[in-house]
Write a structure and sequence with these properties.
It is found in: Membrane. The protein is of the alpha+beta class. It is built from 19 helices and seven strands. The protein has a four-stranded mixed beta sheet.
Length: about 425
């Protein structure tokens, strides 16, 4: 072991450092501590002319390492990459060195943001499915499967894909127009009468309605059926050509495509036949609202807007906070709605607008969200005071979380912008 006051010279990446042997012996067992041993000149790259040890490492990070031996505290610059710092510490045998609290916080926050905003950077998209299908290019079925899938999912991959995308778009717009046109047409339910007085068949006093004939304009039914036949063919082709059928069936848009196939066929079965399930037909009309999900496929014709992608990332990242916010709003609705309702009951006000507690909950929702329809308002003085407190709580509940949403949105926006710039700057290597 060299004397404590003996100086040791280090050449780190071309920069010369000078320190005492006692300084390097602060952490026994590390690489710098072994430089103070007698056999260090034979073990490491030692230049006897300059009497220095050479290490081909970064001098910027080494300054922090050397200061760690001097002060027993590990600090790092503001823009230090955590992975680079960890690699440097591991090289010098300081993997377990604790980072100073002042630097630990900023470095941990930056690393956590990098991990959070990088979670969805490499999301498997349609291209991933195409790559998997492309592995089967040697087989005839694999080649056609890839082509059919690309025609439906990559509208700009070929001229035929562009034409198919235009046809699909026309059908999607057409089915939505038919759904809207149905609201302007009369759907009739003609009663079915069965004579029960066999001795006097002409007497209508002895007849009873046993069901209804479902009557709908034929051109609407036939037009909708024509569109649905196309959608069925499209759905089957996409399902058969999809490389990952499980993911295909789990997609919300594909589930909506599957559900929208049923209403027309059920109506076609009921058309012209007596039925007593009039309410079923109204539920089918509600199910038809899934037609409008088809308009979301227009996004395939253009690149997904950056804001839309960032908004989806932010929503998933803040899912827990959103649920918490909704639970807080639910508590406020139940509390203020019940409070205002029972206050009016106690005051025995005959003109109270709260006919039941459901009306009070509706008033609480409108007030907390600061919409203020004005259809239901408290009349009593205490009720108005409760209404003022409800409005203030609603404003605070909505305003306070907004900065958190903005910060998270900005973080994802910056991460996506960096990713887009990297994509544009990436130059393909020559094969």
């Amino acid at each position: 072991m060299k004397p404590l006051e003996e100086k040791i010279f280090l050449n780190i990446g071309g920069l010369r450092y000078e320190t005492y042997a006692s300084t390097l012996q602060a952490f026994p067992g590390t690489k710098l501590c072994r430089l103070t041993e007698p056999q260090a000149a034979a073990t490491f790259d030692y230049d006897p002319d300059t009497q220095e040890f050479f290490f081909d490492r970064s001098s910027c990070l080494f300054e922090d390492v050397l200061n760690h031996y001097r002060t027993k505290q590990l600090h790092c610059p503001d823009l230090t990459c955590k992975s680079a710092l960890d690699e440097e510490l591991a090289f010098w045998g300081l993997s377990n060195a604790p980072l100073a609290p002042c630097c630990w916080q900023k470095l941990t926050i930056a690393e956590r943001q990098k991990e959070e905003y990088g979670i969805r950077e490499e999301e498997p998209e349609v291209a991933g499915l195409l790559d998997q299908a492309g592995r089967n290019q040697s087989a005839w079925r694999g080649r056609w499967q890839t082509r059919i899938w690309a025609m439906f999912e990559k509208p700009f991959s070929s001229l035929s894909a562009k034409g198919l995308a235009a046809v699909c778009l026309l059908f999607n717009i057409g089915i939505c127009c038919l759904f809207i046109a149905k609201a302007f047409e009369d759907t009739h339910f003609l009663p079915v009468y069965i004579l029960e007085n066999q001795t006097n068949p002409t007497s209508v006093l002895h007849t009873k309605a046993h069901g209804f004939f479902y009557v709908k304009p034929l051109f609407l039914l036939h037009s909708e059926l024509f569109c649905l036949l196309w959608f069925m063919l499209e759905f089957l082709l996409r399902l058969l050509s999809c490389p990952k059928k499980k993911e295909f069936l789990q997609s919300p848009l594909n589930v909506a495509d599957f559900l929208c196939l049923f209403p027309v066929y059920i109506e076609l079965f009921l058309y012209g036949h007596p039925t007593s399930h009039q309410r079923l037909l109204f539920w089918l009309d509600i199910l038809r609202a899934s037609y409008f999900f088809k308009l979301l496929k227009v996004l395939k014709l253009v690149e997904t807007p950056l804001m839309l992608r960032v908004l989806s990332y932010t929503s998933w990242a803040l899912l827990r906070e959103i649920i918490t916010l909704l639970l807080v709003l639910l508590f406020e609705i139940l509390f203020f709605g019940s409070l205002c309702y029972f206050v009016d009951i106690i005051e025995d006000n005959a003109e109270t607008p709260f006919g039941d507690i459901g009306s009070a909950f509706w008033w609480a929702v409108v007030t907390l969200t600061t919409v203020g329809y004005g259809d239901i308002v408290p009349i009593s003085l205490v009720g108005r005071m409760i209404g003022a407190c409800t409005a203030l709580c609603g404003v605070l509940t909505i305003i306070i979380p907004i900065p958190f949403f903005c910060i998270k949105f900005q973080g994802y926006y910056d991460a996506v912008m960096v990713k887009e710039k990297r994509k544009r700057q990436t130059v393909p290597l020559p094969s």
